[in-house]
Amino acid sequence: MTNPLFTVVKGNPTEEELAALTQVLTDLQQEAKSRTGGGHRNLWGRPATRNHGPVVFNPSAFNSQTLF
């Protein structure tokens, strides 16, 4: 058994009104999911472990710099 999408806490709606409200809420939910799906996601602030690849140590990387 599935949980209801919403519950009516006040009033006495008809079956047609409940069906219309259900349809509107379902359409809004599908529209919101379609807007957020796909596209570029900037994961800069994501608190997960980042895979930057191996760290390369180069002791002569800044030899040409006068003030380091």
TrEMBL record:
Pfam families: ACC_epsilon. It comes from Corynebacterium tuscaniense. It comes from the Bacteria. Residues 31-57 are annotated as: Disordered. InterPro entries: ACC_epsilon. One of its GO terms (molecular function) is propionyl-CoA carboxylase activity. This is Acyl-CoA carboxylase subunit epsilon.
